[in-house]
Amino acid sequence: MNLFIKFCSQHFNQDPDFKSVCTSQFLSSYLLTVQNKNTRSKKAAFLRNFLRTILDHFYEDNIEKIKRVLKVKVDKRNLPRAFTKEQIDELIMLARLGRESYRNFVILWTFLGTGIRLSELCTLQIGDIKPQTKDIYVRSKGEKEFKTPSKITDFSLELLTQFVKFRFGALKDLPNYSELYVFSNNQGKTPINESTVQKMLSNLIDQSSTITDDDKNVYQLSVHSLRHSFALYLLESGVDPYTIQQLLRHKWLSSTLVYLNLFDSMLVKVINQHPLANLKVTDFFKEVSK
């Protein structure tokens, strides 16, 4: 919304009338400034929902005249990528060998045990860890003021709590102990920089023998791929998309359903795990033949 408003202010001398920005020509000029097809589709999807709501509520109108401009078309070549289990195993092993190995090991398992985003991990504070409910509280995408609970696996929770005891045990009596950042380079005063985590994983990817040179060169795998891996393994285990939506804290189910397209071959295996999948048609005709 901020980017759209900024674009509007650059093309009008004063605040424009709402209907003046709802033209095919103006919306096209805004979307054409975006090179990446997937990003352009996300912006178009946002504008479709926003303009549809405003036009309907305040103007008793619809978006039919501008709908053709606001196309939502995903470039499948740029669909999100996930790590294979073999690659994950190697990354975890490599993380234990380098500098800050304990921290890096816990960071990887926090990602894999929660599916949280990079920004959410970096801003995680000691008081956000809730062992009683098996939650960690994070600032979700687009929410600066509030924190929402995110479930965490038992193994990752234990690693995280032990790491906090190891790193901050001597500071437990501080009045602001719960406000200290779990991953920090200055005793919890400020959060670790996102680029530090990105560089850490990038180095591990470079060292990996199970990741192809092509994937390394074009940087198709990243920190966010750990979130995709989290979702993939849930789907592979037979967890339904609606539950995965809640665990990933997606506002829209459509954001979760992208994994159905990404891992179609995996879904074929899942459907054949259905208790009725192993039945054979010939079994029903044995009695008839007798």
Description:
By secondary structure, the chain is mainly alpha-helical. The protein folds into 2 domains: 2-78, no CATH class; 85-269, Intergrase catalytic core (hpI Integrase, Chain A, Orthogonal Bundle), CATH 1.10.443.10. The protein is built from 14 helices and 3 strands. It has a 3-stranded antiparallel sheet with strand order 1-2-3, covered by helices on one side. Strand 1 (129-130) and strand 2 form a beta hairpin. The longest helix has 23 residues, at 37-59. The termini are far apart. Pfam families: Phage_integrase. This is Tyr recombinase domain-containing protein. InterPro entries: DNA_brk_join_enz, Integrase-like_cat_sf, Integrase_catalytic, Tyrosine_recombinase_XerCD.
Number of E-state strands: 3
Question: What is the CATH T-level topology of the largest domain?
Answer: hpI Integrase, Chain A
Q: Biggest β-sheet: count, sense, barrel?
A: 3 strands, antiparallel
Described by the principal axes of the CA atoms, the overall outline is globular
Give the helix level as a range of percent. 40-55%
Mean pLDDT value: 85
Keywords: DNA recombination
Domain Tyr recombinase: 78-272
Protein name: Tyr recombinase domain-containing protein
Organism: Paenibacillus donghaensis
